[in-house]
Amino acid sequence: MDPLYLTLRTLTSPIAAITTSSGGRRNGLVVNSAQRASLVPTFMRVSMYISKTNLTHDLIWDSGVFGMHLLRADQWDVVRALGVRSGRDGDKFASLALRTGQTGCPLLQDCLVALECRVANTMDAGAATFFLGDVVAAESGTEGDVMTSDRFRKGLPDDLRVQYEANLVRAQEELARIAQTVDRARNWPGPTTRP
Ligand SMILES: Cc1cc2nc3c(=O)[nH]c(=O)nc-3n(C[C@H](O)[C@H](O)[C@H](O)COP(=O)(O)O)c2cc1C
């Protein structure tokens, strides 16, 4: 693998599960692009990059709400449910316990920490959209070690690794076509649907 790509790969966040819904359609995915985006403890913000080809992207764009969950290192069930197939192929939440947050967004019951967020702004990033979110509620779950990207790579079960690597190759090929074009005029219009 390209040594520069391997170096850039170290600039990843812990594994986070993202949930959302729009017009009653619920969905979610897994990211390693979750970041704290505010230094001010009394006004928490987070950010993430979501590929434009993912269903979750469009649902967050439309409803303006999302849940961001830090996972424990043993939560392979969540990775399996949300991170290796698209919600276009069926309901991804069937095996996961959910609650509804104050924004109407579905949130995972089992996680280290659940942050409920409203989109504050977005930035076009070519293949992805950068979402900046205000944290409107936060709740701690069962304690444990956080699933860092390093723990993810080392502990990924074999069957999941095969799917994850195949998806990554396919996504990289697909996204390469749109990665270079950044639309500076693409502003987020605000929510257009209810969760
Ligand atoms: C460890 C890991 C990290 C990922 N990071 C991101 C990410 O930062 N942004 C993103 O859009 N997709 C990311 N993905 C891919 C999505 O989770 C995946 O494409 C998902 O199936 C999309 O589902 P959807 O079409 O239902 O939204 C990641 C997947 C894994 C397993």
Explain what you see.
The chain has helices at residues 3-9, 55-63, 76-82, 149-155, 158-176; strands at residues 16-22, 25-31, 35-36, 45-51, 65-70, 98-100, 106-108, 113-125, 128-140. It is of the alpha+beta class. The protein has one domain (3-176): Pnp Oxidase, Chain A, CATH 2.30.110.10. The strands form two sheets. The protein has a seven-stranded antiparallel beta sheet, with helices on both faces. Strands 6-7 form a two-stranded antiparallel sheet. Bound molecules: flavin mononucleotide. Flavin mononucleotide binds at residues 15, 27, 29-33, 49-51, 54-56, 79, 83-88, 152, 164.
Query: CATH top level?
Result: Mainly Beta
H/E element sequence: HEEEEHEHEEEEHH
| Radius of gyration using CA atoms only | 16 Å
The CATH architecture can be named as: Roll
In percent, how helical is the residue content? 25-40%
Pairing-aware structural class of the strands and helices?
A: alpha+beta
The average pLDDT score comes to 96
Strand percentage:
25-35%
- Walk across the major sheet and give the strand order: 2-1-5-8-9-4-3
Low-confidence stretches: none
Task: Note the overall shape.
Answer: globular
Write the CATH fold name: Pnp Oxidase, Chain A
- Main sheet? 7 strands, antiparallel
Q: Strand tally, please? A: 9
User: CATH homologous superfamily?
Assistant: Electron Transport, Fmn-binding Protein, Chain A
- Straight-line N-to-C gap: 41 Å
Given the structure, what is the number of helices? 5
